[in-house]
Design a protein that fits this description.
This protein is mainly beta. The chain is built from two helices and 33 strands.
């Protein structure tokens, strides 16, 4: 991800440790409790918290606000980045499948529609930015670190950034608060929490929220149909992309096509078949590369910002259907121009990447035969070979993953949509079979790694991912 002082609040892998020094001081009586302030805290929380949700997506965890009783949820775009569906958990523990119906990188906002809503849901009203003043009380409710849903923190509006349409607050915000509401004393949304200003990964006392008027403009644009989750502008003459592994050079310029957020992009097309393995990278020293892949119907298949290391983008996916695919070479920052290279490989032969093996078993999500060999990727840590495959799963689904080989000692790793290692298995004691059965915690795209326990291990393997229940 991009380095710097502004850090998005989507929950990520943060490991904290160390020893804290403990000093002793004379006992000081705590300040007296202001009963009026306490009553306000309680009232705001009781009124607003039922409409604050937790969101689990392939990008991690975040928060959101229900703004319509039929099930419209407002959050940050970076919370749902790369997802067409997410898992949404209400304060009463009910869970809904959410469809990402619109997203925008500038402003960093997204709209989710909940499926299966049969009764009116609690909502949060949106205030006007006109009445917001520095010094007024502010309340934040969200799911910090993706583990503490329904957490309330309080503070004040400490600054108004009129140029960037942001509110600054000292109410504690941490990773996982992204997309949650910043509220006034009437429990109205005055901002959508989006970032913290910090040199580390924790709260420093400066939080940033997108102001209410910008939020209203975004909602109006969604209702008018001018912002969608899968923007596919008409392309007059996309470049044919030969996925032969050779890098081609190009330049994003101000004369290129633009996405709805104003960012420039170049479009490429290629023919693909169901089951083929696609790996493609976009690299640049001048811009922050961003890749988006669509199938022949215009449905977004994958997107990536920093998966190629540093600021480089990388997509690795198994094509779901046969047809013409469209790839956007884009920049993460709106308005960026500059040179880049793009290279990729589309494989469908047994010796380089794996093929899908035909099967009539409907429980099977993914089945591949392959070979760890010269075309495989290499782990820098130990030099062992590996191949990565993705599959879509839903929260609560129980799957069994099995890796079998008679040529090497299998090692199997499963990553969650937020890139966290969920489980791994080294094939002991059989040394020929590594397997795991587990309940998936999130809805999203999971990644399984086929690896050898021995750094020198190579040869044929079979991978099966199937639903148990």
């Amino acid at each position: 991800m991009k380095q710097g002082l502004i850090k998005f609040l989507a929950a990520s892998l943060i490991l904290c440790g160390g020893v804290s020094a403990i000093a002793t001081f004379p006992l000081v009586a705590p300040p007296p409790v202001n009963a009026q302030d306490e009553d306000t805290n309680i009232r705001v929380y009781k009124q607003a918290s039922p409409a604050v949700v937790s969101i689990q997506s392939r990008s991690g965890s975040g928060s959101g606000s229900i703004i319509d009783p039929k099930g419209l949820v407002l959050t940050n775009a970076h919370v749902v980045r790369g997802s067409t569906t997410v898992n949404v958990i209400l304060s009463d523990k009910r869970q809904f499948r959410g469809v990402v119906m619109a997203s925008s990188r500038n402003p960093d906002l997204a709209m989710i529609r909940l499926e299966g809503v049969t009764t009116n849901l609690p909502t949060i009203q949106i205030a006007s930015s006109n009445g917001i003043q520095v010094g007024q009380r502010a309340f934040a409710i969200g799911n910090p670190f993706g583990r503490f849903a329904g957490t309330l923190t309080t503070g004040i509006i400490s600054r108004i950034d009129s140029d960037r349409k942001l509110l600054q607050t000292d109410a504690a915000l941490n990773p996982g608060n992204s997309g949650g509401p910043l509220l006034n004393s009437r429990a109205e949304l005055v901002g959508v929490n989006t970032a913290i200003f910090t040199t580390s990964s924790v709260n420093s006392g400066i939080g940033l929220a997108i102001e209410a008027d910008t939020v209203k403009q975004f909602i109006a644009a969604v209702q008018q149909g001018t912002i969608a989750n899968n923007p596919t502008p008409a392309i007059a003459s996309p470049t044919v992309l030969n996925l032969d592994g050779n890098a081609i050079a190009s330049v994003l310029t101000a004369s290129d096509n633009t996405l709805p957020d104003g960012s420039y992009y170049k479009a490429y097309q290629f023919q693909g078949k169901a089951g083929q393995s696609l790996v493609i990278e976009m690299r640049s020293n001048g811009i922050d590369p961003y890749l988006v892949l669509f199938d022949s119907t215009g449905r977004k298949i994958a997107e990536d910002d920093d998966g190629g290391g540093g600021k480089n983008a990388r997509i690795a996916v198994t094509l779901p259907s046969t047809g013409k695919y469209t790839l956007y070479a884009n920049s993460y920052e709106v308005g960026q121009t500059g040179s880049f290279t793009i290279a990729g490989r589309l494989s469908n032969n047994f010796t380089s990447q794996s093929n899908i093996e035909p099967t009539d078993d409907r429980r099977i999500i993914l089945q591949k035969n392959g070979i760890l060999g010269n075309q495989s990727r290499v782990f820098a840590r130990d030099g062992s070979l590996f191949e990565a495959f993705s599959f879509n799963g839903r929260a609560g689904q129980v799957v069994q993953i099995e890796l079998v080989s008679s040529d090497f000692h299998p090692y199997l790793v499963l990553f969650a949509p937020d890139s966290r290692v969920l489980q791994e298995n080294n094939g002991l004691p059989s040394r020929k079979n590594a397997s795991m059965t587990l309940e998936l915690p999130f809805t999203g795209t999971y990644r399984t790694i086929v690896n050898a326990f021995d750094p020198n291990g190579k040869g044929a393997y079979k991978l099966i991912v199937k639903t148990v229940r």
